[in-house]
Amino acid sequence: MRPLHIALAALVAAVWGVNFVVIEVGLGHFPPLLFSALRFLVAALPAVFFVGRPKVAWKWIVGVGLVLGVAKFGLLFIGMDRGMPAGLSSLVLQVQAVFTALIAALALGERPGRVRVLGMAVALAGIGVAAVDEGASGPVLAFVLVIAAAACWGVSNVLTRKAAPPDSLNFMVWVSTVPVLPLLGLSLLFEGWDRDADALAALDWSGVGIIVYVAWITTVFGFGAWGFLLRHYPASSVAPFTLLVPVFGMSSAALLLDESVSPLRWCAAALLVGGVALTSLAGTRRPRPATTEAAEPQPAGA
Question: Cα(65)–Cα(171) distance, rounded to whole angstroms?
């Protein structure tokens, strides 16, 4: 890769890593489900008018929109609102690679090789260490919610592979149109009209900046740049940069939020990132015959 494009890939990883800090700050402005709905609303508008018509069937857009947008982001935002730290969230979400490999083995017939199985075991060991650390210092329910979000992300990754979108930005913008109404409905049901109305009435420039960051910078710029890189380089060259996301996430949380990182958490980070690297970059055994094209890999900061 050219040095400029290496810098671009690192910048995207940094944007996605810092996104977890922005989410934590944003949860001080908005209830979690309303916040997630606003993120997708602003990501979809006005971008949906500039990316062209959908390039995959609507069943994939709706399916990924519900699993990724409603389930994954809803659980993530609620988990962080319940006390899951930003840096740890950026790390624990990486277990989505393990869920993706397991679900792909069941749904797509992809048999993981020995190196990938080893990577999954190492990553799960990292989750175990992180669970022990969080159980000793933080709310367990919040940790479980983020793990559930990672599992939903794994499902959405497999659906995305089945959809095989030729343009990741076009796909994500149209996917972003799906969760808005379901999330708004869930917010009104569980968070209440009064809480939502108070949050919107108190909207200030910092709240606007937060929404712009999580919607346009993280989604539109992030996926646009990522898609550009994938069109010019093999996925095997671009995908490893996603391993920098938890590095930027934990570092920015420590610097900006004064989030402490215990020795046990560093151990969990080493195991999880190493395991995800083995799981993501190792090959698979010959799968059963299939006609589905490979989609662009889902980045870790989606």
Answer: 10
Domain map (residue ranges) of the chain: 3-96+140-245
Q: What would the pLDDT profile of 73-92 be if each residue is shown by its tens digit? A: 999 999 999 999 999 899 88
Give this prediction's pTM.
0.88
Residue type, 213: Y
Number of C-beta neighbours around residue 7 at 10 A: 11
Listing DSSP states for 24-66 in one string gives: HHHTTTS-HHHHHHHHHHHHHTTGGGTS-S-SS-HHHHHHHII
List, in order, residues 6 or more apart from 149 with CB less than 8 Å away.
71, 72, 73, 75, 76, 79, 93
| Tokens standing for residue 200 | 């919107």
Minimal CA–CA distance to 302: which of 5, 19, 55, 7?
A: 19
Cis before 46? omega within 30: yes
The predicted-structure confidence for 177-232, as pLDDT tens digits, reads as follows: 999 999 999 999 999 999 999 999 999 999 999 999 999 999 889 888 988 887 88
Can you list the pairs that 189-194 forms with residues at least 24 positions away whose Cβ atoms lie under 8 Å?
190/33, 191/31, 191/32, 191/33, 191/34
